[in-house]
Amino acid sequence: MSDDGKAKTRINRVITRSGDDGRTGLADGSRVAKDHPRIQALGTLDELNSELGVLRARELHADLDRLLENLQQLLFDLGGELAVPGTSTLTDGDLVEVESQADTLNAELPPLEEFVLPGGHPDAAWCHHCRALARRAERDLVTLAAVDDINPVSRAVLNRLGDLLFVMARLINQRTETPEPQWLPRRDR
Length: 189
Description:
Elements: E1 23-25, E2 31-33, H1 37-56, H2 62-83, H3 92-106, H4 122-145, H5 152-175
Antiparallel strand pairs: 1-2
Helix pairs in contact: 1-2, 1-4, 3-5, 4-5
């Protein structure tokens, strides 16, 4: 909101044509190639956030929906951090929160007896898809860190986020009483 109480316009025009040359603008005004590792990382974060939105469009338990909304907000914070090189927004507190959420959900689950195959309930399968995207986003940050400085907490948050989404997929299967697909060693198939 502006000082006069009116909503502040953040984006007024979507089509700018400024990216037609294969470069895009960062929030600090600099321009980089659209295949720069920073843009690759931002793109994967956008994919992950979009897929979390698809998962949230399903009828999930309210606690999981709230958690996913918070994760979407956190991913936007991380995207903002990447859009302004040299910026650190995520903190150790964010890392502790994601890890704590994973531990809380995991406490509801039985121990793993074997590796889990992605699948089961459709929502759990989609959650596994989001987990795989979180892992790709983490790899993209590793790639970016090889050429630019990044906030090391952000990479760790994505690592924990992958863990959290794995646990959430298992919990969705449990809550929906859907058998959890497990890997069978070759000799047992």
